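Troubleshooting: if your tokenizer reports a length mismatch, compare your output against this known-good record of 208 residues.
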Amino acid sequence: MTSIFKHMFVATALVASIGTAVAAPAQAPNDFIKTVADGLINHLKAEHGKLQNNSAAIDAILKQNLEPYVDVQAFTRIVMGTYASPQNSTPQQRANFEKSLRQSLIQNYGSALAKYSNQSYAIRPYRPSASAYQIVTLDFINQGQKTPIAFQLSDNNSQWKIRNINVAGIDLGLQFRNQFASSVQRSGGDLDKAIASFQPDAGAAVKK
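Known-good structure output:
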């Protein structure tokens, strides 16, 4: 997998993880993911010439094509881990973390999204789960090489929500949780300092 492509698909999945959801669960989970993926890819291709060094344009595409379909609270809780507990953080700290996480992902991976060109994807056959979450897996294809990305969906008040991502067998929410816990330790337990300085590293997570 090329470095550009690896960071592109990670960015596609991750920056999505800061938003709210609007899709109705009457739509099958695999159809829901196809709708999200097609919308994002079509806009990236259509605006390709305008995206280089244009964070505002990338941000606009993400807000329109990704943010409406994801569960911000769930992903924030996953990444914060025990620090998301009301006993370990304040509402303001959790809000600051959510904002910081989103901004960091856009800054670090926006350039990768801007380089998206003719990569493709295929959705694997969907198999309903008896658990609280449904899993839909895509194979992103670049020069014949496939990389699986599994989206974990939850049905909340008649709305599908993406709550976590698994890339090539790596649980990104869990990897980011470990990274954040290390950041808190390096900050001497100062949660505010850790939140302000936290830089999620998807590339390092995928390499594990």
